[in-house]
């Protein structure tokens, strides 16, 4: 399968713990995006990388959230001191560079439950 | 600023009948418009996009969408619905002005096709 992959698919954690998610984009895609999706809502943008550079961050991305893409390939999203409000589906997407209208390809998501 | 509205939380249609899922948008300049579909426990899948040119855009699985600049709409259509089309559909917009690569998604519309 050459699509976008995300691990783990599900994560249950206790409030206050740290969690880390991984995204492996389609190999030839330079751009990588993180979104959060809650029930009844569309994906909400969190952050975006072009290669290893983090180019945009949403106001939704509080200080407890950090994302990296150290070698311009896979990316990690870490949430520190999780809160119950962080419970959501975290989606990763990737796209080709070059054209602003290139569509994004999404992974299956990581569902986070904070108890 | 860019925004998108999907005025219907749910659309019900009988198999074999035509379907329409509505989307309206707001942008400062000109839009790039996208439709994605999300099946249960799956990531979002790209259906089609409008960049420029013909107002009627054809996409995957027999879907098409009509761009209407005067009504700022981009409704998704299919001439004959299938039960397997039942899923969650998301419209997304990206404002050409400013060069952002970040789309804004609507809340989604649940399409239910009855046998």
Could you explain how this protein is built, in words?
Chain A is an all-beta fold and 115 residues long. Chain A has strands spanning 5-7, 10-13, 19-24, 31-37, 44-50, 53-57, 65-68, 75-79, 88-95, 105-106, 110-114. In chain A, strands 2, 4, 5, 6, 9, 10 and 11 form a 7-stranded mixed β-sheet that branches. Chain A has a 4-stranded antiparallel β-sheet with strand order 1-3-8-7, with no helix packed on it. In chain A, a hairpin with a 2-residue loop joins strand 5 and strand 6 (53-57). Chain A is globular and about 40 Å long. With 115 residues, chain B is mainly beta. Chain B contains no helices and 12 strands. In chain B, strands 2, 5, 6, 10, 11 and 12 form a 6-stranded mixed β-sheet that branches. A 4-stranded antiparallel β-sheet of chain B has the order 3-9-8-7, with no helix packed on it. A two-stranded antiparallel ribbon of chain B has the order 1-4. Chain B is globular. The N and C termini of chain B lie far apart (41 Å). The model of chain B has no long low-confidence stretch (mean pLDDT 93).
Discrete helix count of chain B: 0
Estimate the strand proportion of chain B: over 45%
| Tally of DSSP β-strands of chain B | 12
Structural class category of chain B: mainly beta
Q: Using the CA coordinates, give the radius of gyration of chain A.
A: 13 Å
Order of helices and strands of chain A: EEEEEEEEEEE
> What oligomeric state is this?
heterodimer
The H-and-E topology of chain B, N to C, reads as EEEEEEEEEEEE
Question: Roughly how much helix do the residues of chain B carry, as a percent range?
Answer: under 10%
Mean pLDDT of chain B: 93
Q: What attributes characterize this protein structure?
A:
heterodimer, A: 115 residues, mainly beta, four-stranded antiparallel β-sheet, 11 strands, B: 115 residues, six-stranded mixed β-sheet
